[in-house]
Amino acid sequence: MNKFENRFWRSEVVTDGPLPALAESSIDTETLWLLAENIPTLCWIANGDGYIAWYNRRWHDYCGSTPKVMARGWESVCDPASLPDVKTRWQGAIISGVPFEMTFPLRGADGIVRPFLTRVQPVRDETGAVVRWFGVNIEMSAQVQAEHALEQERDLSRAVIDALPGVVYAKDRDGRMLAANQGTAALIGKPPSFFLGKTDVEYLDDKDQAEALMATDRRIMEAGVAEQVEEAVSLPDGTQAIWLSTKAPWRSASGETIGLIGASVDITARKAAEAELERINVTLTERIAAAVVDRETALTQVYEMQRLEAISQLTGGIAHDFNNLLTPIVGTLDLLNRKYQEDPRAARMISGAQESAERARVLVSQLLSFARRQILVPKSIDLAHLVRDMTELIIRSAAGVDVRIEIADDLPCVRVDPNQLELALLNLAINARDAMPNGGVLTIFADVQQVSPGGALQAGDYVALHVTDNGCGMTAETLARAAEPFYTTKRTGTGTGTGLGLSMVDGLARQTGGMLTIDSSPGLGTTAHLWLPSEPRAVAAQPSPLVQATGRTEGKALTILLVDDEPLVRMGTADMLETMGHNVIEASSGFEALEVLSTYEDIDVLLTDYMMPGMTGSQLIERVRDARPEFPVALITGFAKLSETEAEKLPRLTKPFRLADLEKLLDDISGFSKRP
């Protein structure tokens, strides 16, 4: 420690005895020392060089030490962390002779370190030299705590204001910004340091806007009444917005208006919504009326769909049962025709019955097509090839009109049952012919259409087949009911006009994943559009001509297990099989058939109906194939709701069928060995 430091920290005189003589004053020295000794403040005296000569009693009470102990100086009670700074500043005061003031901690007798404000004044002689220093230490704990609490309160206030949505601010009487939250900075587009202490005119780029804002502020401060106003402002990006501002006078404790407090929120979206609502309200009556009409239209469509669905369900059920009734009739007529073919009269009668049965079979097929319950075997078909093969048949069917077929060879393939498509096209051609009783032009063409999402059809690629005539056309009422089952405008009693032609085409289109649409006007003709899902061109399957079997299956007689829950159907089919020279074992259910198979080991073929109680025909076949994978099987059914595997993998004969159809089925499956 150097000489100066020793002077500072080591007192030459620390005494309880007579006090140092003080300068003459109007108050005697003893009184002054008594006053200094008893004031409720820590006091001390140092000589001109900074040596501490005396501490008052308050010092000893606070530090809990005697004057002898305090001779070590402040080092024993001063906070060590503050010593270097205290030392440097005290030395500077001694050298310069200027008053010393500093707040630093002192440790008390209880061990608690408290902040003290230390003030030291120099005492000078006649020459101006410092001869003595008089110091006091004032405890600042309460003030520091109050300042800390005030700072916390300020921090909390700032946090609350910043957390508030929108803009919150305070201005003085002249309109200068005194405080603002983060929302204010975001609205202005500049940091608080830019606009605090300035008026709106000084920091806003839009001076007209600034003048308008300040005029509103002045009016509110002068009136002394809070207001809520809408203000147009320019955002930092240049867009215009509308803010709802609540502004109130800021008053002092005496009630004098000293400024303005404001809070603003962006209501641009709300104003736009209000404007839109107002626009909607203007036409509300018309919109309600339109909605009522739309609702009634939608309900009408729903009722119509429900009605058609009910008709479809009824029609499908009747057609399915009618197939079971027709099957033994058609088969029996075939057997009678074979037996009495040498008798002209009998042959004529049987032929007439067969023609009626065939018309009934076609009618049932149309009913099933409308009900979307006919059995389809969809294949990838070259549409151009199919239409070309049908050209001669179409020309014969549409006799009396000019038939023009314009089908490009490079069309994509379509996935559809070829036989049903031929029937649908023939129906459309005949309808077109009937619409042109005095002749006309029938045009058939096709093109590729791409359907977007959101329409009546599933999005994707389609081939649209168009059948156009220039006949009489249809009224709007007729067009609306054109595809309705049993609806027809043709003359009755002519053997035509069942009202199922277009409904059959519509059913085929829907069951295939397409759609039938019709455009027509009275006197301007009609165009039917048949939309079919397209596929990439490949080796497309072509419809094969009907094979007419003329005799029984070649080879040895087969032992056939025939399963059907309808006795008449089972009996008629058994008669046909026996006429062909085969042995027939009958079963009325799948469970009975399994018992027969477990008893007889020499059964060659299983023919089974599909729809039977307890076990379907396909379930029966699955059970049989589990035990005998290569066993020849086939379904005989008129039921349409088969799975894709059942429809494509299982040999199948559709009811009603003729003897030739049954013979062909047996020829096909006699060597059938692949399990589905």
Q: What characteristics describe this protein?
A:
single chain; 676 residues; Beta-Lactamase; seven-stranded mixed beta sheet; 44% helix; 23% strand; disordered C terminus
Brief description of this entry?
The protein contains 22 helices and 22 strands. It is α+β, with helices and mostly antiparallel strands and 676 residues long.
Give structural notes.
With 676 residues, the protein is α+β, with helices and mostly antiparallel strands. It has five domains: 3-139, 2-Layer Sandwich (Beta-Lactamase); 152-273, Beta-Lactamase (2-Layer Sandwich); 284-364; 376-535, Histidine kinase-like ATPase, C-terminal domain (Heat Shock Protein 90); 559-669, Response regulator (Rossmann fold, 3-Layer(aba) Sandwich), CATH 3.40.50. 44% of the residues lie in helices and 23% in strands. It contains 22 helices and 22 strands. The strands form four sheets. Strands 11, 12, 13, 14, 15, 16 and 17 form a seven-stranded mixed sheet that branches. Helix 14 packs parallel to helix 15 and helix 15 packs antiparallel against helix 17. The radius of gyration is 55 Å and the shape is elongated. The protein starts with a helix and ends in a 7-residue tail after the last helix.
